[in-house]
């Protein structure tokens, strides 16, 4: 596969993974670009020991973890506030809420759930992150549970707000 | 199951325009060039200073051994700095695309710990070599001066070196360490998540 083909095929997937990790559009875009720069640099050395998708997600996960260096340079108080939800449709607000919830999880959980939602096999997630498959399975279950509870809670608040209005 | 589909559906709706691939490649090339320029600049600056010191040795032909040792100490301080700097840059930039995130994090943690230690040692060693080099080199020329001139020359140099050693050196070390230690703490925190 050529770089161009990989780029077209994986851009959105890598962007979503980065977005789940940092939850800031521009930052996620920069991060996704950095991932593809590494893909471009390392592609000639790529050994087909794992699938190319696993390889790209591994690069993306390592790049995400590396963001703590950048994270520290941005003072938390200067981070942009959440988008005003009034401008968002219900669906957009739900998408924004999902990404917000994911980005608030511990770092490894963010990567696990993002890869799961990208439909990467659990064995491959274990391979990418260096955890056991059993651990991944348990963690996915817990994260999904946590997310659905948050969603239910959010829906209740949203409905009661609407009723008051 | 329905919950799962709902999450996946929401997840997949997040899209962004695909930037032009050529733009990415251009960025990759400029990124490489920028780092190369940085390495070349640091090397050129210190190598030129070293070359200048060797030229001074050759031009003034110092007679005393102390002057020669002085110049050698100053040059070696710069060469030491460059050797460590040139070895570290590729390590800090490497992405380890072949290893899993757990191992990657362990390597990053090890690297940062080593970096924290080296920074402290290197900064002190660099200042020590450079200072003793300057003081030794001065001896031959100040020995020909009057006592008051010797006191002034050594007084000013020692003041400048002391300022570097007691004020700038700890400040530089503290700044570097604060940043690296914060990173190490954060890395250790993430490391625990793998257990």
UniProtKB/TrEMBL annotation, chain A:
Signal peptide: none annotated. It holds the Pfam family Sigma70_r2. Residues 6-73 form the RNA polymerase sigma-70 region domain. GO terms for molecular function: DNA binding; sigma factor activity. Residues 97-147 form the RNA polymerase sigma factor 70 region 4 type domain. Keywords: DNA-binding, Sigma factor, Transcription, Transcription regulation. Belongs to the sigma-70 factor family. ECF subfamily. NCBIfam families: sigma70-ECF (TIGR02937). This is Sigma-70 family RNA polymerase sigma factor.
From TrEMBL, chain B:
Keywords: Membrane, Transmembrane, Transmembrane helix. It comes from the Bacteria. The chain crosses the membrane at residues 39-57, 69-96, 117-139, 145-167. This is Uncharacterized protein. It comes from Rapidithrix thailandica.
């Amino acid at each position: 596969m050529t770089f161009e083909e990989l780029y077209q095929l994986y851009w959105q997937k890598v962007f979503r993974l980065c977005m789940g990790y940092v939850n800031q559009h521009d930052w996620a875009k920069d991060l996704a670009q950095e991932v593809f720069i590494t893909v471009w640099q390392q592609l000639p050395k790529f050994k087909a020991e794992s699938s190319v998708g696993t390889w790209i997600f591994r690069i993306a996960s390592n790049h995400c973890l590396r963001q703590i260096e950048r994270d520290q340079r941005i003072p938390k108080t200067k981070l942009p506030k959440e988008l005003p939800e009034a401008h968002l449709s219900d669906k957009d607000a739900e998408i924004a809420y999902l990404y917000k919830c994911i980005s608030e999880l511990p770092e490894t959980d963010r990567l696990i759930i993002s890869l799961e939602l990208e439909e990467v096999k659990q064995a491959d997630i274990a391979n990418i992150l260096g955890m056991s498959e059993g651990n991944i399975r348990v963690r996915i279950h817990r994260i999904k549970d946590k997310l659905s509870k948050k969603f239910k809670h959010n829906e209740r608040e949203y409905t009661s707000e609407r009723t008051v209005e | 199951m329905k919950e799962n589909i709902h999450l996946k559906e929401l997840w997949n709706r997040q899209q962004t325009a695909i930037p032009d691939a050529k733009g990415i490649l251009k960025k990759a090339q400029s990124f490489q060039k920028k780092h190369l320029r940085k390495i070349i600049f640091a090397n050129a600056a210190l190598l030129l200073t070293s070359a200048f010191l060797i030229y001074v040795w050759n031009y003034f032909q110092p007679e005393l051994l102390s002057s020669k040792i002085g110049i050698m100490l100053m040059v070696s301080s710069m060469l030491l700095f460059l050797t460590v700097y040139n070895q570290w840059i590729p390590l800090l930039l490497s992405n380890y695309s072949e290893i899993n995130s757990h191992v990657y994090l362990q390597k990053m943690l090890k690297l940062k710990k080593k970096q924290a230690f080296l920074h402290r040692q290197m900064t002190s060693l660099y200042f020590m070599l450079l200072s003793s080099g300057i003081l030794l080199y001065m001896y031959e020329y100040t020995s020909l001066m009057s006592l008051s001139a010797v006191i002034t020359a050594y007084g000013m140099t020692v003041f400048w070196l002391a300022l570097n050693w007691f004020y700038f050196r700890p400040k530089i070390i503290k700044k570097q360490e604060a940043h690296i230690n914060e990173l190490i703490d954060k890395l250790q925190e993430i490391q625990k998540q793998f257990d």
